[in-house]
Design goal:
By secondary structure, this protein is α+β, with helices and mostly antiparallel strands. The chain has helices at residues 3-23, 27-31, 62-73; strands spanning 34-43, 56-61, 85-90, 94-98, 105-117, 120-134, 139-148. The mean pLDDT is 91.
């Protein structure tokens, strides 16, 4: 196994682990996968290039993600009773290359996701694009971009991260 193959295997393992942590509601562990400059982005349009300059469904830096995690874990978060649950089904994460500008590993992963809360089910499908920083001992999410198939449709309120 060459060095690039070993690195992409580590990166794929993180992508799969992220979905597992979300489904297990392990919010603090999920947050720890993000780089200090990490960004969680649900694009409104597949042609978007900058989440900070264009309207998005969601655009949260690590600080906002930490606030979200603290809220979800708070015992008095009544709006989350009963706590929604999710199930992610991922296709194999495809390695798209290393960005020469910043050395980040880029992956594309088609997915299906369902959020269930009582009798309410919200199915969503799309593609996740991860930009990952690989260090000697860690793999961290620098950017997670989600392109929903039906992003321009009227979407219900989502309580949990995709």
């Amino acid at each position: 196994m060459n060095a690039e193959s070993a690195a992409t295997d580590r990166a794929r393992a993180l992508i799969i682990e992220e979905a597992r942590l979300l489904d297990a509601a392990s919010w603090s562990a999920w947050l720890s996968l993000y780089d200090v400059d990490g960004l969680y982005w649900v694009a409104l349009d597949p042609g978007q290039s900058d989440p900070r300059l264009e309207q998005s469904i969601a655009c949260e830096d690590r600080l906002l993600l930490a606030v979200r995690v603290a809220r979800m874990a708070h015992p008095k978060a009544w709006s989350l009773k009963p706590m929604p649950r999710t199930q992610h089904v991922l296709q194999w994460p495809v390695f798209e290359g290393i960005d020469p500008a910043d050395g980040l590993y880029c992956f594309r992963t088609p997915f299906s996701h369902v959020e269930v809360r009582g009798e309410r089910r919200i199915p969503l499908e799309g593609t996740v694009r991860h930009r990952l920083r690989l260090g000697p001992q860690s793999v961290l999410i620098v950017q997670k971009r989600i392109d929903l198939v039906d992003a321009q449709s009227a979407l219900p309120s989502l309580y949990l991260p995709l």
